[in-house]
Input
Amino acid sequence: MSQTEQQLESALIAQLSSLEYKRVTIKNEVDILRNLKIQVEQFNQLEPLSENEWKQIFSYLSKGSSAFECAKLLRDKCPVKFDDGSTRHIRFFSEQSEENIFQVTNQISVDNRANQRNHRFDVTILVNGLPLVQIELKRRGVEIAEAFHQTQRYIREAYWAGQGLFNYIQLFVISNGANTKYYSNQTKNIEFAFSWTNEANHKINELMHFAEVFLSQHHLIEMISQYMVILEDAKRLMVMRPYQIYAVKNIIKHIHTRADNGYIWHTTGSGKTLTAFKAAQLIMQMPDVEKVLFVVDRNDLDTQTVREFNRFKEGCVDTTTNTNTLVKQLGEKHDKLIVTTLQKLNRAVSTEGNQAKIAYLKDKKVVFIFDECHRSQFGETHRKIRAFFNKAQMFGFTGTPIFDDNSQSQAGLKLTTDYLFHNRLHQYVIMDAIRDDNVLRFQIDYVGKFVQKRLIDSDVEVEAIDTQELFDNKPRIEKIARFIIENFEIKTRNREFTAMFCVSSVKMLTHYYAAFEKILAEKAERATQNGEHFADLKIATIFSYAANEAVSDGSGLIGEESTDLPAQINVSSRDHLDNYIEKYNRTFNTNFNSGERFYDYYRDIGQRVKNKEIDLLLVVNMFLTGFDAPTLNTLFVDKNLKYHGLIQAFSRTNRLYNDKKPFGNIVCFRNLKQATDDALSLFSNKDAKSIVLVPEFDEIKTEYNQAVEALLKITPTYESVDELLTEEDELEFIKAFRLVMRLNTQLLTFSEYNQDETFLNKLDYANFASKYIDLRRKVDKYVKKQKASVLNDVDFQLELLHSDKINVGYILGLLQRATKTKNFEQRKQYEAQVYDLLATEITLQNKQDLIAKFIDQNMPHFDEKTNVNEAFQTYWDAERERAYNEFCEAENLNKTNVRALLENYQHTKRLPRQDEMKELPNFKVGLFQRESLFNSLVAKTRSFIERFYVGM
Output
């Protein structure tokens, strides 16, 4: 017999009671407030507080209107003026678990009067009277995602209601008994809900085992006090993953018990910088440590890292190239944490003058944390640090350690990571990360082969050839450029994502840049002649112009390209770069150059790639290591890569983003198959290939057809969806079609995919998708009517439905053809095709009525001289302006601020967030209405944007 949700809840409460949580009965907000007062008094060892004294404390706790603000209030102290005239600071939380008071209750009810709904929460853990952990359960056999979406609904509708004390929740735990995950408050996507593991990265999924370890009082307080990060820049909370926590713990333990070095091997993309940052925070608290130096390569010191570190310790980061600033920081004893670059650290310990200024540190304990310890120049810096700092202790983080196989010798010594850092303190390899859904797998295409010195267009295994003359062949370069342009929409999901192209040398890069410009110009001219819309590719590039820049990439290892200005330059390379920067400045209205503003150019390019303002970035070595852009999903490769160079480069594509990004795309124009196998074997194990790489096209297609067969057993036709009798039947359909969608999303990234050759052609797929959306609308109606439904919290994953290939531009192209033909029947066929697309294409549903109105009102009057694009743009601008005015008036919004919000979307393509809503209303929003109103405005403004801007 299956364990019910109630039985699971009872078992969990019993387990928590055995862990010395006090079971209390709290049914509503009145009970919460009464209990809170008593616990605050007991925790602070106070006599019963008077009404005036308690009012001051409660006023302090009520200041937080968001989980972010409440998290800071929780960790701070409240000044209270007591009736006897004394003043005392009241605490609400202690980092020492034994000082806190732990309670557990269940089925607390909160009444949201705004929408007349009553919500009950499963299991709540109270610490000193405040609800800090909320646990939501589902019976065994139910998807754990349903519990996640239930917490999201409560965040929207319930936790802010009343006095808003549930905004103090720090952690959520969700479970269906067999699977259990945790995540911080304000987490929006289930991808960032984590399983707890042991130190060997084995998951602890069973709820009772999880509770015993994770919810023990000591561990829970440790999680909240030490392993959560309050991100000032994003104004949200973040909780660390298990492997990050074990890494930090082991570093701290190593410092306490040993004097030698250590390193952390956490795979690329697994959040090493955050782990290192948290380690630096905790090491600072050790009294015997004089300084903590967090050392990054200058290229990695991005804007967000600077802001977060400076908020933690003001002035600890210096982005200038002036070594004197670092020497000054080292000389000031109150600056315990310093964030610097590898280049400045090297210069600081290289001269006698600098050494004299920091001589007092020579025999002090100084801890160095290196963000990327696989960097090649670290060997020299390592020796200089050891020579000067007698008690230096160094810890390195790397996603790709240097082993014997991928090391480079110096003076007969192989400088491996183990040689430099002695002890591997924790390991989390790419297989672990993929298994835990913390990074994506890779889909690798090998395109092209050489036959008798000719490149033949073919998607087959590449033959082993390594002739530079063939690689530099201009017809080959042009064919590859055409391939990239022709397949760009497929690989980037119609520019939902961006791409990078790495080549072997600056010389080849200039050839490719010219080829792209030529081909794109041809396409633009052809589109103009045919009256078609042409979406140009925005291409940018950056590279080093040092005189010794390698022309051969035979080693396959990525060289270091500094953003510092080189002492000796290659004039030809710099001239080309100046030309490219000039074009960049014209495109983006900037004023960068290859001289003193080169580093600013470097950072601007990185940000624009992240913002999807650049479609394709051409590089030699830059951005192939350390660059983190979740919006980048494709890497084109015409460059030899191997070992850590290959893994680093490929890993630019495998950051989590959304359901449209199931894996990172790698398209190789060279034979890197053996190199890929060797790298995966070196950095995980011999079985890694089947885990890290996406299955072949035919394998996914077979799985897709099997999923379609399962769907058709439930609903043989799309009309039969209407005949499903119960919500349970509808749920089965939703799950079956959701799997079909997920596999279809994967297949859409293959150029050879033809949906009409599968068991579910494009039209049938669209019809089923329409029914799927109808069920989503039904659930929305349930919510509005406060009607319970088993579908309320199901994950519809609507993002998987989007297919912008058929968009408004495509429709207008068909209408333009219809106006140009003099054949009446053919014209009617074009118009009929448009109406069919409007009825079935998911991405056009929110525009369907407006496009149909345009066609009905205008097409009868159009002839072959009509420019349909111009006519439609005039019509669309008028409709958008009318809707904009109606929206602002209906919601009583400031039109200027709404306009600025919409213009910001047009510039950044980033949908608005909740914190951008506060400037929109023309009226003062009450404290307890903010969350509900701003959530509503976010939904409505996004809906407006999706209707009038997306897909246009």
In short: Residues 835-948 form one domain. Confidence is low (pLDDT under 50) at residues 450-466, 547-554. The longest helix spans residues 506-529. The CA atoms of residues 106 and 418 lie 51 Å apart.
